[in-house]
């Protein structure tokens, strides 16, 4: 459309007829100013008065880790194989798997030159933007090799991880053969068999029926050369329960070995880039020394030795749970950043009577929907950093204790291991649930634009959903953690004192469970984090004591309550860590102090006190007189207080645009231009005719019904045929 200049237009005006003189406008196309969301976001950033790097160090735990994370962001962004692009949202399953394979290949080059810690962090970051790639590598490094390390001897680990080079993703590629078509969470119920043949000194691996088919095995369909197979050890007709065995699947030409049947399980809700498969074994023979024998040993003549520390064999599962809890933080950071940047730039309706529409972020409902998730993400950041550190120390102490046969260290490590099963299970289940809800709510808060594939919500939600059911179904993990908490409280009531355990706060259970006075009685108590922490401890204690009599009769009847206890345990852990880090690492006069204090309060009011107010009230931990204030008034006050800081708090995550990977979530805030540019790049306007256009044209241009019926029903035909 041509724009007529003011000068040329004025020459064409007829002076003799002033009534027909057109109104001169400066812009014939539009006389209104276009939206300027980038300006709004820049104005929000002006409220940030702290050092973003310093806040990032608070979140990550220390300066060294923060610096390494930022360098890895930069490295990923610059790597043409690893970087993200908008058109990747349009990939078919075949194209996505090709991209994933290329990225795995590229990542294998980094593992050869980086420290294990640095590579794990690179992988953790990549897993957020490409979960399919992440899980395919983690299955090999985190499940296959960790299972060998946790269940095998040092020589077995050295052979498979180092000599065979699977530790650097070379020569062989492992998968994790635990889940069966008929058994998932109940690992002890697995029915694949490993029968010892004393004559040939081999185990015979068999799938006895369809229910024992290995199922959902990541990497099995196309990638894996070997699997660690969970199978029932049968020696001299005695079933010794489920043990682990390394079973080769493919030869050096990547062809299936005799007796191995494998297939792709097909379309899934998400993670289409993962080649999940099924495996069936038919009389597959493996050498006796392919059984992992760190704990259980089978001699040449068929003698079976079961050492007392065999319960530690499942410690290999912890790394995945710890990792998923940490992933919840980074996913939360990514999507709260997108939603809050959009909320600043997007204007809708007018609530103040001004000439401009109102920013979404200034609507109270919008604040109540998003700000609590931002606060939860901050709590998850510090909590999962602590969890990772404790997990690393646990593995180190275990290796040291076993190597030196240090009984005192082993005793402490076993206690710490029991705590880690509770903590990792509670955090993994609670935070992956929360992250799933966070993605969904942030997507809805972005309205129709949140539904666009180019803003990452849809694909990520589908890819994320599996986190709530694999590596421990969340409800099963919650029930397990809750059961341990109840048993622990029972032991404390019987006089046992917990030592070297993160559950030591339960040592106060005898006193807390009998307390008559509410811990939180007046509004002012809500501004005391330590008091809120004590309130959670009191609730856990009272709740557990209340459930003990029922547990003596049936655990199943109190399964829902056990899950609630695990959630409370998660939040106690997060808040305890948040309080400790704030008090010990942020000075009273630091500009970070007030934003973090408000964030902490918003977290424990909206994620702990309000959701569990029925339990807090039932057990008399919170006074009924302030219930309404906790649920309705105080959260609104905190949202108002934190409002000026939210963009600074999200910027402090320091996630670059290539990692955010959302056109409405970019740092510059120019949501509309960014959006349109990405759409044009991925879907060229030149391609205005669809590949399926022939079907549409056939529909639109079809002949009349009379013509298609050869005019046999026409009036003319009727006249001729009726004679």
UniProtKB/TrEMBL annotation:
Molecular function, one GO term: fatty acid binding
Catalytic activity from the UniProt record: a 2,3-saturated acyl-CoA + O2 = a (2E)-enoyl-CoA + H2O2
Annotated Acyl-CoA oxidase C-alpha1 domain residues: 314-485
Domain Acyl-CoA oxidase/dehydrogenase middle: 175-284
Transmembrane segments annotated in the record for this chain: none
Active site (record annotation): 471 (proton acceptor)
InterPro entries linked to this entry: ACOX_C_alpha1 (IPR055060), Acyl-CoA_ox_N (IPR029320), Acyl-CoA_Oxase/DH_mid-dom (IPR006091), Acyl-CoA_Oxase/DH_mid-dom_sf (IPR046373), Acyl-CoA_oxidase (IPR012258), Acyl-CoA_oxidase_C (IPR002655), AcylCo_DH-like_C (IPR036250), AcylCoA_DH/ox_N_sf (IPR037069)
GO terms of biological process kind: fatty acid beta-oxidation using acyl-CoA oxidase; lipid homeostasis
Domain Acyl-coenzyme A oxidase N-terminal as annotated: residue spans: 52-166
Residue ranges occupied by any Acyl-CoA oxidase C-terminal domain in the UniProt entry: 551-701
Pathway per the UniProt entry: Lipid metabolism; peroxisomal fatty acid beta-oxidation
One Gene Ontology CC term in the entry: peroxisome
Required co-factors: FAD
Localization in the cell: Peroxisome
SUPFAM superfamilies (UniProt xref): Acyl-CoA dehydrogenase C-terminal domain-like (SSF47203), Acyl-CoA dehydrogenase NM domain-like (SSF56645)
Binding site for FAD: 179, 218
Keywords tagged on the record: FAD, Fatty acid metabolism, Flavoprotein, Lipid metabolism, Oxidoreductase, Peroxisome
Location of region: Disordered: 1-39, 700-723
Record field: compositional bias (Basic and acidic residues): 1-20, 705-723
Family, similarity comment: Belongs to the acyl-CoA oxidase family.
Protein known as: Acyl-coenzyme A oxidase
């Amino acid at each position: 459309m041509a724009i007529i200049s003011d000068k040329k237009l004025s020459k064409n005006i007829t002076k003799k007829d002033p009534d027909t003189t057109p109104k001169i406008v400066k812009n014939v196309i539009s006389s209104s100013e276009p939206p300027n969301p980038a300006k709004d976001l820049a104005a929000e950033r002006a409220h940030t008065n702290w050092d973003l790097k310093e806040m990032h160090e608070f979140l990550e735990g220390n300066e060294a880790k923060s610096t390494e994370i930022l360098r890895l962001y930069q490295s990923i962004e610059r790597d043409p194989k690893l970087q993200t692009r908008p058109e990747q949202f349009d990939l078919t399953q075949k194209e996505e798997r090709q991209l994933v394979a290329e990225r795995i290949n590229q990542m294998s080059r980094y593992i050869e030159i980086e420290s294990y810690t640095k590579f794990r962090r690179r992988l953790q970051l990549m897993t957020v933007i490409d979960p399919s790639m992440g899980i395919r590598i983690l299955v090999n490094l985190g499940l296959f090799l960790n299972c060998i390390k946790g269940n095998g001897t040092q020589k077995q680990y050295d052979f498979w991880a180092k000599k065979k080079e699977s530790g650097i993703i070379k020569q062989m590629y492992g998968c994790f053969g635990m889940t069966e078509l008929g058994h998932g969470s109940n690992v002890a119920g697995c029915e694949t068999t490993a029968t010892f043949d004393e004559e040939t000194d081999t185990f015979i691996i068999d799938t006895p029926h369809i229910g024992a088919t290995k199922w959902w095995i990541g990497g099995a369909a196309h990638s894996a050369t070997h699997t660690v197979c969970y199978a029932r050890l049968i020696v001299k007709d005695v079933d010794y329960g489920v043990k682990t065995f390394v079973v080769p699947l493919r030869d050096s030409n990547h062809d299936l070995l005799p007796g191995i049947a494998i297939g792709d399980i097909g379309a899934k809700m998400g993670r289409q880039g993962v080649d999940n498969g099924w495996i069936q074994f038919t009389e597959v023979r493996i050498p006796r020394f392919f059984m992992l024998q760190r704990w259980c040993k089978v001699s040449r003549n068929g003698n079976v030795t079961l050492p007392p520390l065999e319960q530690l064999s499942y410690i290999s599962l912890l790394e995945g749970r710890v990792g998923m809890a940490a992933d919840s933080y980074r996913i939360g950071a990514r999507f709260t950043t997108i939603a809050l940047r959009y909320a600043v730039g997007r204007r809708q309706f007018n609530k103040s009577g001004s000439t401009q529409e109102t920013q979404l972020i200034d609507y109270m409902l919008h604040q109540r929907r998003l700000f609590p998730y931002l606060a939860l993400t901050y709590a998850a950041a510090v909590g999962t950093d602590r969890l990772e550190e404790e997990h690393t120390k646990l593995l180190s102490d275990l290796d040291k204790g076993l190597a030196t046969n240090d009984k005192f260290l082993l005793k402490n490590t076993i206690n710490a291991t029991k705590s880690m099963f509770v903590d990792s299970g509670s955090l993994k289940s609670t935070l992956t649930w929360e992250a799933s809800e966070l993605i969904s709510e942030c997507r809805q808060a972005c309205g129709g634009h949140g539904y666009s594939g180019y803003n990452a919500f849809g694909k990520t939600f589908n890819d994320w959903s599996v986190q709530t059911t694999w590596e421990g179904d969340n409800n099963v993990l919650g029930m397990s953690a809750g059961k341990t908490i109840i048993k622990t409280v029972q032991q404390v009531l019987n006089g046992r004192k917990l030592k070297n355990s993160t559950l030591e706060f339960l040592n106060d259970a005898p006193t807390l469970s009998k307390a008559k006075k509410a811990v939180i009685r007046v509004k002012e108590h809500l501004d005391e984090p330590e008091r809120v922490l004590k309130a959670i401890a009191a609730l856990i204690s009272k709740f557990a004591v209340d459930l003990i009599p029922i547990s003596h009769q049936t655990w199943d009847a109190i399964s829902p309550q056990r899950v609630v206890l695990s959630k409370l345990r998660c939040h106690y852990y997060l808040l305890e860590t948040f309080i400790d880090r704030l008090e010990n690492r942020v000075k009273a006069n630091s500009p970070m102090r007030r934003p973090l204090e408000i964030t902490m309060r918003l977290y424990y009011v909206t994620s702990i006190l309000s959701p569990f107010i029925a339990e807090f009230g039932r057990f008399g931990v919170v006074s009924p007189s302030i219930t309404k204030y906790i649920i309705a008034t105080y959260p609104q006050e905190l949202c108002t207080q934190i409002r000026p800081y939210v963009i600074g708090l999200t910027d402090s995550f320091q996630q670059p645009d290539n990692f955010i990977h959302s056109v409405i979530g970019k740092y510059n805030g120019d949501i509309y231009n960014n959006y349109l540019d990405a759409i044009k790049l991925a879907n060229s306007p030149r391609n205005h005719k669809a590949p399926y256009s022939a079907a549409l044209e056939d529909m639109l241009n079809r002949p009349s019904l009379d013509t298609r019926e050869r005019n046999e029903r026409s009036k003319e035909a009727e006249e001729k045929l009726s004679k």
